[in-house]
Amino acid sequence: MRMTNRMERMRNMLICLLLLAGGAAAQTTDIIVGAEAVTSLPIGSLGDRFLPAVGLSVHAGQQTDDDWTLLGRLDRMEWSELNTEKLQKSIVRQQVGSKSVYTFPLPKLSMKLTATGLSAVGKYNLLRTSFLESDLQVGFGFTHWKFERGAYNDSLVADSSGTKLTVGLLNVPSNVQTDWSGTVTAGFNADIRLIEPVWLNAGVHYTLIIGELWQALALDMESVSGMQFIAIRTGIHIYF
Q: What CATH code is carried by the domain that includes residue 74?
């Protein structure tokens, strides 16, 4: 119930913004609707956990004047393919006069991060012709996200001079986090007219979800303070 109320407030806020934009549209009343496929490339500490993933986005809004268009945008992303090159466990064993470091992959590790975000986006026109448009975009909103990591139980066995040696045991419980977080995004778009009123668009955006994924030191996983990714967007939109 609490999450539903927050979602309703967020939706109502964006609807109000779009209605205000419509009232301010003195020179034009163009309405825009569209859908995009989004390839998200995690960066920073989020990129140490996940590989790129593909999601979906839909948007609708109104051109307020010759320079600005205001959109409401809904994004849905899910990351589940792990960065196995980064997700490894290291064990250090001290011996008389020497130190040995053993590194192990984590083949049984399973994690998933899902995110559904609703944002108000402003598009500032840079170029507009009869067949080509380009713009800068800045957006603010909220994202509901859920992170899931399965339990991990395994023995870490190393090969030391031809001898199998158990150097560690992992018994890490599962973890689930879910929260609402503020979100900011900024990027560049270019649009090409296919056939009036349908346009093909492509863009590159930086997105920050202002939330934290907890550390799991037993698995050598550091915390993620701010979930960052680069979104490559391709899709179509229609003017009415």
A: 2.40.160.20
The H-assigned helical ranges of the chain are 2-24
Q: Which domain holds residue 213?
A: 2-239
- Global pTM value: 0.85
pLDDT tens readout for residues 3-49: 556 556 655 655 555 554 445 444 455 899 999 999 999 999 999 99
Nearest to 226 by CA among 42, 69, 51, 31: 42
CB atoms within 10 A of CB 69: 22
Return the DSSP state at 187.
Answer: E
Q: Helix, strand or coil for residue 146?
A: strand
User: What is the tens place of the pLDDT at every residue in 206-226?
Assistant: 999 999 999 999 999 999 999
Type of residue found at 142: F
From the CB of residue 229, how many other CB atoms can be counted at a distance below 10 Å?
26
